Fold these 2 entries.
Entry 1:
Amino acid sequence: MHRARKRFGQNFLQDQGIIYSIVALINPSQDMHVIEIGPGLGALTRPLLSNLDQLDLLEIDRDLVAYWNQENLKGLTVIEGDALKFNFDAWAQNRSKKMGLCKVVGNLPYNISSPLLFHLVEAAEHIDEQVFMLQAEVVERMVAQAGSSDFSRLSVMLQARYEMELVLEVPPEAFDPAPKVNSAVVRMIPRKDFSLTQSQWNSLEQVVAAAFSQRRKMLRTNLQAFAARLGLSDEELKARAQDISVDRYIEWAKLLAV
Ligand SMILES: C[S@@+](CC[C@H](N)C(=O)[O-])C[C@H]1O[C@@H](n2cnc3c(N)ncnc32)[C@H](O)[C@@H]1O
């Protein structure tokens, strides 16, 4: 019997209703290419595989990799590795050659969720959809709108790249062992209208980091270094980072990158 490892963020889903809802949301079909990050003992893996021709697993825990290799299930490819270092773009390009949708799914290890979400942005061009279970607080920040106290650097950067929706709230009892926090499922679809170049994206990171560097301070202070190039209005100079819309941050990134 596998004992859950804290360092790998192992909390195994056991609520059948929630497992069913997540699999229904992923809507697996034969021509779809799916990679699951962190299959654990297979709460999502087995029901997914029964509706897919092929499923790729990416798992860091050697014992779980050995377990899945031993299971030797038809259509399953087991990759031992760290999701933070995995080249999702190369995976998606390779898989999508045969046509069909490319999806990344997983009940993610919560201790690496933000860096992993940013790492996945690099592959967004070739991925059609992501469905993840995350800490509820993180999902609330991801989908928060300008003006709300949850609106943060994570909200702006991810909303610039994805359409996102909190789909399901999940209580700790749905897992074994139960985590200390509430969880939520988020659906992320890369924005069709995304048009930033790499240097514009870098500028977006720069201006957003500066704007949110001191949440309570006005942009007059936080964006002092950029103010002349951005043409901030009087109202914007007095505003705080959380009051500015994602579209306005994108406009600033474009101005900064020229
Ligand atoms: C929250 S558990 C989810 C397990 C299973 N999917 C479930 O729902 O019951 C997280 C899984 O991610 C794996 N994991 C942790 N860190 C990882 C990393 N950096 N790269 C890939 N997998 C990782 C863990 O070993 C574990 O299998």
Entry 2:
Amino acid sequence: MGHAGGLLADLRAAQGRGWVNQFLQEYRLNSSEGVALLSLAEAFLRVPDPETADLLIADKLGDADWRAHAGRSNSRLVNSATWGLVVGRALVGEGDQGPLRRLISRAGEPFVRQAVGAAMKMMGEIFVMGRTIDEAMRRMKKPENKGFTASFDMLGEAARTFADADRYFQAYVGAIEAVGSDAAAGHSVSVKLSALHPRYEVARRHECVPALTEMLEALAVQAAAKGIALTVDAEESERLEMSLDIIGTVAALPGLKGWDGFGMAVQAYGKRARPVVAWANGLDRIMNVRLVKGAYWDSEIKRTQVEGLVDYPLFTRKAATDVSYLAVARDMLAAENIRPAFASHNALTVATILEWAGNSRDFEFQRLHGMGDGLYERLVREQGYHCRIYAPVGGHRDLLAYLVRRLLENGANSSFVHQLAGERLSEAEILADPVAKIAAVGGTRHASIPLPRDLFAPGHRNSEGLDLSDVPTLEATVRAVNAPLDAAPVVPADSGAVTAAVDRAAAAFPAWSATPVGERAAILERLADLLERHREELMAICVQEAFKTIGDSIGEVREAADFCRYYAGEGRARLMPQELPGPTGERNTLHLDGRGVWATIAPWNFPLAIFLGQTAAALVAGNTVVAKPAPQTPRIAARAVALAHEAGVPQDALILVPGGPEVGAALTADARIAGVAFTGSTATAKRIARALLEDDDRPIVPLIAETGGINAMIVDSTALPEQVVADVATSAFRSAGQRCSALRLLLVQADVADTVIEMLKGAMDTLRLGAPGDPATDVGPVIDRAAYDRLMTYRDGTRERWLKTVAAPGEGLFVPPTLIRLDRVEDLQQEWFGPILHVATWDAGTLSETIARVNAKGYGLTMGLHSRIARAAEVAEAEAAVGNLYINRSMIGAVVGSQPFGGEGLSGTGPKAGGPHYLYRFCTERAVSVDTTSAGGNATLLSLDEGGI
Ligand SMILES: NC(=O)c1ccc[n+]([C@@H]2O[C@H](COP(=O)([O-])OP(=O)(O)OC[C@H]3O[C@@H](n4cnc5c(N)ncnc54)[C@H](O)[C@@H]3O)[C@@H](O)[C@H]2O)c1
Ligand SMILES: N[C@@H](CCC=O)C(=O)O
């Protein structure tokens, strides 16, 4: 396509002009140096302490070859930045003996941070139009922006607190005021709704949609009065319908009639892009629609997988998004009420639109500040087309982190501008028709992005999730989980019933253990299917019996199904007889068989998943099982056992014995029990261990005990506070803190403690305590009065050290989430199984010591680390004595087959649930050796082929 070729040539030529382009040329974002620089830029400016700043520099600059770039660029500015990096590398990476280091070190350590700081400042200027709206507007007046207009956005992280949201709102008000003071310049403002409310979530739609509508209305009225345009930025697809509700309401406001400045962004990577544009065209007004390729591609792909949704709401191939973009663009050009804005740096896309638009100039292009120089200059300055620069405004410290992450997340390597930098690609390759590319692969999904269902293929099938961002699905789920339960009570067993159960299970053992493992596995897979078929009923029991929130109840059913399918697969793969090597004339076989009757004893906090997980593993290994649920949650267990029987587990191969500690004690005291799989408190585990050893005549049987922990998260000053706070709130308060994995002890580097704690306090204000069956609830009641009294007594006794607590409903067993200051790591000595979080600080440079102090508690379940320094992650990996270490993420929600779960020390015996070594512990190993020559003659040896001689 000729037009595209011309644009491409302009674009290519422009890449060599100006220091910004030269910087990008020198440090291509798909080179290791480019990525190192971006990673450094993401974190460096927020690190207040020199010690950590040096570690970060060493970490990011250490491996890259900066000298290769020295003096190579035509730009002096770029070369001086490069020297900063060379110097930085020398100081942190060459050891004491490097000549450069010796030379530079005379200038003192601060010099290196200044040099790197200067390089970061350059990067800030590349990505950020101005630190304030005035600075940004001044920059727009510079010759390089001549003829272009701007859409300014006070971009940044999504708000985590109401205070953040208020700050962003005021920034938008200020921007509209400033831009409106020179309305004739034609600039506009973009707003991001997720910056204006800390809980912009479908589950909280009754609260956030009206609040956001009100804020957007205020901004729109202000913009209309100033005569400037206002565009609502795109959000993730899970928020699309809420965004449309808000935009639709504001668009229809009578007071805004006649103002043609209102607009919205549409993401072409979303499969709903065309209907959204049709919707916008149907509003009774002119809408400015900015078509973008899409801003959250990788996080949306991941969310879909994590939540086990049926399919992706977005395209999995870049070329498919390009095709979608063109299809939507054509709709927009034909639409009556839409003023199109095509945001693209792709020469082919631009050329196609130019061709389709014919002589019209009644639309605009848009490009990002810092990208796509050269593509539009001629069109704007010589041919009368319009182009707007999307211009982020804000302090480099906050904004650079955000923009760099977006850039890294959105496949910098595959974006058009960065492809250009790769000299290997010819014009024909760069301008290849995306429709042809998609046709060539038959329109199929990307092979490396399987459907969530197939995530573990060829292993087990992933469990099905529920898309609660879909309002009809959410509402149906809410109705189902709150429907009254069938009231039949589950009668506790007495000691006679326990003995009878073991009698029956022992009698059933020979037949069940002789059932081929493949058949036992197939029964578990049928059980998984049944669990999913009865999902709503099971979720209702979780909500009403265990007070689990809706989200946790989905997780519960999914994990139970995953355990069944995973252990089924593991059974087939690992429990078949194995032929072993040996001398000729001998056959050696290893058999993994069931041991007999297992007792499985479960806690109330995972009354389906853990109850069934332990049981399924014992069953597939050929054991029969007497299963004891927690006394608080017998119903869900009874339903699970009934479904297991329906799936084909013989009645006597799995027997439920409901009841409390006395039933558990009677069960473990029965000398016929061949093994115990227990999950619960450390104290109970020890009691069971002692009971199993009490009778000297009894065989020593295996005990798998999964217990509690004092779980810590360590945060250094390179971590992003917004991410930390989100992960802390999830880890400490989700499930009302009633997960063994939950965060109990937050350890923040002293230099950033005030900032992180302040934000955390704000985030705690956004928590909603309420009924578990209400989707808006974050924290439900705790399990029972005894737990409530225990937690409240402890909490009341720490009142003078509270940093924050939140209000709880007057009625019900609600323990208010509370943040408690500790002076020392050692001050927390036991697990408090509820929404109570302790916080202490640690000093820069003492990561190893801090980990050692946590280890010294003797527990070893989960630990979290938030740091941008890879070396810190290596230290944690090597030194944290825990079963599950989580880096830069929350520390709950282990997934079967991905994060085998379980601790060490006081936290458990292992092997880990949902991991490849679990089943073996349920088996007895028998080696059989047969002398195949005992009757005379070694047939194998005698019939050997002579190998052709
Ligand atoms: N590591 C893990 O995977 C994991 C998972 C969930 C819960 N937990 C831990 O479980 C605890 C909370 O659960 P809980 O309150 O139900 O624990 P718990 O120890 O009180 O009870 C667990 C189970 O053991 C039974 N039991 C109690 N005394 C017994 C005895 N003497 N003999 C045999 N059985 C007996 C109970 O009836 C219940 O079924 C927390 O400490 C938590 O950290 C650990
Ligand atoms: N496996 C669960 C915790 C189980 C204990 O309560 C998690 O990873 O959050």
